[in-house]
Specification:
By secondary structure, this protein is an all-alpha fold. The chain has a single domain, classed as Homeodomain-like (Arc Repressor Mutant, subunit A, Orthogonal Bundle). The protein is built from 5 helices and no strands.
Length: 74
């Protein structure tokens, strides 16, 4: 699932901050500190970052295993 462009609650633009957030958190920085430095102050917007989970790779893997017509005809 892609990261949302806007916060679901307040409508603030948040997608432009996702790449930097992900890189810095993967590098070992504390997520709260990164969000503060990126200027994400509202708790509804922070929730969008903290609770997001990338499922796209898992969906593609599932589709490649079970999405073929051969499997669905069994």
């Amino acid at each position: 699932m892609m990261f949302p462009v806007r916060c679901f609650t307040c409508g603030a633009l948040i997608a432009d901050k996702w790449d930097e957030y992900r890189e810095r958190v993967d590098a070992g920085e504390e997520p709260g500190k990164v969000l503060d430095e990126l200027g994400v102050r509202r708790y509804c917007c922070r929730r969008m970052f903290l609770s997001h989970y990338e499922v796209f790779d898992e969906v593609i893997e599932f589709h490649s295993l079970f999405g073929s017509r051969e499997y669905s005809q069994r």
